[in-house]
Design a protein that fits this description.
Elements lengths: L1 E6 L4 E4 L5 E14 L5 E14 L1 H10 L5 E17 L2 E17 L1
Parallel strand pairs: 4-6
Antiparallel strand pairs: 1-3, 1-5, 2-3, 3-4, 5-6
């Protein structure tokens, strides 16, 4: 998957016990299309992104991924599953995200 857009939030770093970690951020991808009445419409799609890295690179990467910056990423669509307690009930949740392989701040 290749996406171009703007970073929607400053990147957040999560460290693992082994010293490695993940940098998480979102990308807003704008699309233009014509509707059935031949009028131009705008649509924004939001994508959650995760960039896995070694511990000593995490903060450096996060400092480059700042809200509003234009970015192009290459990665793979991946899915996380977890359970969330809603009232008295536990509900299964699925979240799609982009596992980033490469990125370029434009």
């Amino acid at each position: 998957v290749v996406l171009s857009g703007n970073i929607g939030n400053n990147a957040e770093v999560k460290s693992f016990t082994n010293g490695n970690g993940v940098v998480e951020f979102s990308i807003a991808e704008n699309q233009s299309y014509k509707d059935k009445d031949d009028n131009w419409q705008q649509k924004t799609n939001w994508h959650k992104c995760k960039l896995f890295a070694k511990g000593d690179h995490l903060e450096t990467l996060a400092s480059k991924l700042t809200k509003g910056s234009s970015i192009e990423i290459t990665g793979q669509i991946d899915y996380d599953s977890y359970e969330k307690k809603v009232g008295e009930e536990t509900v299964p949740m699925n979240v799609a995200f982009i596992r980033v392989d490469k990125f370029n701040i434009v």
